[in-house]
Fold this sequence. Notes:
The chain has helices at about 20-40, 55-60, 65-85, 100-115, 135-140, 165-175, 185-195, 225-235, 260-275, 305-315, 315-325, 335-365, 380-400, 405-425, 425-430, 435-455, 465-470; strands spanning about 5-15, 40-50, 90-95, 115-125, 130-135, 150-160, 180, 200, 205, 215, 220-225, 255-260, 285, 290, 295, 335. With about 500 residues, the protein is α/β, with parallel strands linked by helices. The strands form 4 sheets. The chain has a 6-stranded parallel beta sheet with strand order 3-2-1-12-13-7, with helices on both faces. The radius of gyration is 26 Å and the shape is elongated. The relative contact order is 0.12.
Amino acid sequence: MSELLYLTTPIYYINGDPHLGHAYTTVLADTVARAARLEGRKVIFSTGTDEHGLKTVQNARAAGMTETEYANLFSHRFQEAWRVLGVQADVFLRTTQENHLRTVQKALSQLWEDGQIYRGTYEGWYCQPDERFFSPADARGGTCPLCSRTLEWVSEPDYFFRMSSHQAWLIEWIERHPDFIQPETRRNEVLSFLREPLADLCISRPRSRLEWGIRLPFDGEFTTYIWVEALLHYLTVLGWGGEPSRMAWWPQTSHLLGKDILTTHAVYWPTILHALGLEPPHSLFAHGWWVTSGRKMGKSLGNAVQPLELAQRYTPDGLRYFLLREMAAGMDAEFSEERVLARSQAELANIYGNLLQRLTAMLERYCARRVPEPAGGGMEEALLRERFEYLSGDFLRNCSEMRVHAALAGVMDALGEVNQYLERCAPWKEAAAGNRAAVATALYTASEALRIASGLLQSALPFTAPEALRRIGAKAVTQRWELEWGGLQPGSAVESGEPLYPRPVARE
Ligand code: MSP
């Protein structure tokens, strides 16, 4: 595994507030990035906002603002949401930034000079809200396959990227790199899409139809198609062609996205990169959708859920835990508030939070608020120790494979075993019998297990897991070796406190 990791989310459209789907991808990426940092990898984690396009013009007008004012307002709402949810991105990229303009113009100039772009005529079915053209087969009588709205027939001069000339190369690349498109079902989907001849890609819009965007460097009467511009932002983040360049991170790159934008990432993007003389990213991972009553959650269907409201009610970590634990990597998941409550209470509060409360209460009571010095320990302790030694490796591997749901399930199972261990050792009985060594061993062992679990859970729970570490008297865990058994120092001060995951008050 490379020491470097460039992990990205899509850059989101600013046609509304961030919703739960955006929050999911971003929190998942944040967790994977944190776990990778813990493993010692050098991570660049980027997210941002996709601000050009007709939608922004229309929305700004409707709100009585300029495009810039509107873009500033909504881009900041995304940034604010990520701050509240504890997302620690290294780069928040806005496509209206000057350096992005330079990247796009440099890439297009190079493609133009290399004969990868030609002028032609575009005719096709166009969906204005989605800003996508569809083939007659996909247009199904003039209805958008994505949003079901009416498509318009457009015929205009335009510029095209010779995407078709990279088709054979792309198929071979996908076949030779089984990890390139994940999960495997998505890889098969792309390969079957590529069985049909690939058309060239229209990369321009006449300025008369779209002013709010980046001009083609070789013809100022045209604006760059926003998907081409948006994909190129992945290079802007690394300062491609400029200074200081972080291109050492390319192609140690993992793009995280929803399955709605698989084709743009798995077909348009690698062919553009190939034409530019760059390798495709190491991998793309397309996750599933949050659905309500079986329908994709989103702004256009009007069924979007506001993550900030949920974070207020269930705490930011409560929401993060739900998102990460509920959706199995690559599958769809049904959203309901009952599920949020169930996950945050049944697992976070009742297993993790409860263990912390029990332990700190006993450490206060039987060990004078100090981490005790354990005696040698027996079979039970050796087994638990072994369990937690394996846990870290499993957790970090699952996270690096985007299987955060499994990583969290593993920690919860292991914590369940700590609870059972405590039941069997019954330190309260040993204390009553005056057996101080047995009390010390049991409480040290359980606390050390909780320390390791918390060190791992920090990636998912950046607010509460560090607090749990502090309460049991453990130092901050920032590197993998600090997860080794025995890190908890006897004599450290322990502190109890309010439950970390209180039950939300019932709604009126
Ligand atoms: N701007 C483009 C992406 C350009 S990236 C070079 C775009 N933006 S978007 O605002 O529509 O965001 C799409 C992404 O948001 C999805 O790929 C996914 O990451 C996330 N989600 C939006 N709705 C979602 C669900 N209902 N469920 C899960 N994630 C979804 O496309």
